[in-house]
Design brief:
The complex is a heterodimer of chains A (191) and B (230).
Chain A (H helix, E strand, L loop, with lengths): L2 E12 L2 E10 L3 H11 L3 E8 L9 E10 L15 H9 L5 H18 L3 E3 H5 L27 H14 L8 E2 L12
Antiparallel strand pairs in A: 2-4, 2-5, 3-4, 3-6
Chain B lengths: L2 H33 L11 E2 L8 E2 L2 E4 L4 H18 L3 E4 L15 E4 L6 E4 L4 E5 L4 H9 L3 E3 L10 H7 L15 E8 L4 E7 L11 E6 L12
Parallel strand pairs in B: 3-5, 4-5
Antiparallel strand pairs in B: 1-2, 6-7, 9-10, 10-11
Classes of the chains: A alpha+beta (191), B alpha/beta (230).
Chain lengths: 191, 230
């Protein structure tokens, strides 16, 4: 053991309001679209993507979610509540396990219905205030495995091409793919 | 056909179409809900598990860090001394989402950092002082009341500050490097009981072959012979 972290001083930012822009794109245009969208706008605060996991169009479509800052006049102090539609979100996610229909339902919900159900206005703290326990597998007869892969933007589509081949061949049940851009850190490692 | 009957027929048809459209997803979600049984059970006495539920391990002791800072640091130092003397193995645990046994040492002592979770905000400098056992859910609730938010964190809030720093987690904040980029400093109790304050060392120009590093500084500046801080 090297040592025990006792406490830390971390920089904080103001809480903010965002509007969500959802873009459904073919996976082979995912990276180019993400670059174009983020270069066009200087007000993007949060970004993530999801990929389609249905047997039909497996890993060939994605949704890019871009949260744009809404200019604020003052300090944003609101009441923090538990995640909206938490139980429904859980059921939609858990329903993808072992079910192609469940995966279809989740894709349609995220790509088309979410704008109607959740709207497009969000608050930063409310977005961050979501536990992973909400989606946790609670059954004893199975375990969800989380795996993170770091892929350069140029290798994104070839990497997906391999996944399209390998995952079905091994009968793996891919429940979720979230895509996030990564940025280099020039300050790290203690010695 | 009478107008009333026409309206009824139309309503019946509309209802039938709606029922067909809604029936499948509703049935699917009801079936999911029925299968979604909570079978999580607490670990037997003398054992502990991590979030994977795949690492149930026998341990000698699960030691909770006191909330009070002075007591916590004093007792942690004593625990480190005892572990060194008796050759006991120690592991450090927060939310226990660093899986694969990282937070549990077989037959060792698990240090549960979660009670060590005090938070303070310096609004003028926009700096949050957080003890390592605080979870992001506590941090967000605390900052939200002041109109502030976390600069970089994971997409979920279950994890502890200490665990997040240990793995240098990345977030989903656009154009932002991992959490270490938001650290002004952190304090570390070394295995030899010495407390150190760590601060990031930033290079003027990024050098690919030699990434930045953290500079080790003393918690309390030592006075030199001429009274200057060294």
């Amino acid at each position: 053991m090297f040592g025990i972290i006792l406490d830390a001083d971390l920089r904080v930012v103001p809480n903010e309001n965002y509007t969500l822009e959802r873009v459904v794109v073919p996976c082979d245009q995912y990276v180019a679209t993400l670059i174009r969208k983020t270069e066009q706008a200087s007000d993007i605060a949060l970004v993530y993507g999801r990929l389609r996991l249905t047997q039909e169009k497996f890993l060939t479509e994605g949704i890019i979610n871009l949260f744009h800052r809404v200019p604020s006049k003052g300090t944003l102090v609101t009441c923090l509540t538990d995640p909206k539609q938490a139980e429904l979100k859980r059921l939609v996610f858990r329903g993808t396990a072992g079910s192609d229909y469940g995966k279809q339902l989740r894709w349609e919900a995220e790509a088309h219905l979410d704008a109607v159900i959740s709207g497009s206005a969000f608050e930063r703290n409310a977005l961050l205030y979501e536990p992973v326990a909400l989606f946790q597998n609670r059954r004893r007869d199975s375990t969800d495995i989380l795996m993170e892969c770091f892929v350069t933007s140029g290798q994104f589509e070839p990497f997906l091409g391999e996944l399209r081949r390998i995952v079905p061949r091994n009968q793996a049940d891919l429940m979720n793919v979230t895509v996030r851009p990564r940025y280099r850190l020039d300050v790290t490692v203690c010695r | 056909m009478k107008p009333l009957r026409m309206v009824l027929c139309f309503l019946a048809l509309a209802f039938a179409v709606l029922a067909i459209l809604v029936a499948h997803p509703v049935f699917h979600l009801i079936r999911t809900a029925r299968r979604d049984v909570d079978e999580n059970a607490s670990s037997p006495s003398g054992t502990i598990n991590d979030a994977s539920r795949l690492n149930e391990t026998a341990v000698t002791e699960i030691w909770k860090v006191p909330e009070d800072q002075a007591s916590a640091e004093q007792q942690l130092a004593m625990l480190l001394e005892r572990a060194r003397t008796l050759h006991l193995k120690l592991s450090i645990a927060g939310a226990r989402h660093s899986m694969g046994g990282h937070t549990i040492c077989p037959n060792g002592i698990v240090i549960d950092m979660l009670p060590f979770h005090h938070l303070e905000l310096d609004k003028a400098k926009k700096i949050l002082h957080a003890q390592a056992g605080a979870r992001w859910s506590e941090v967000i609730g605390f900052l939200n009341a002041e109109g502030y938010s976390v600069e970089v964190m994971q997409s979920n809030d279950d994890f502890s500050i200490g665990g997040s720093l240990s793995v240098n987690c990345h977030g989903w904040q656009f154009n932002r490097p991992p959490i270490c980029s938001t650290v002004e400093s952190f304090r570390l109790m070394l295995a030899k009981r010495k407390n150190c304050k760590m601060q990031p060392h930033r290079k003027r120009r990024p050098v690919l072959t030699r990434p930045g590093r953290l500079r080790l500084v003393r918690d309390h500046p030592r006075r030199g012979p001429e009274g200057r801080a060294e």
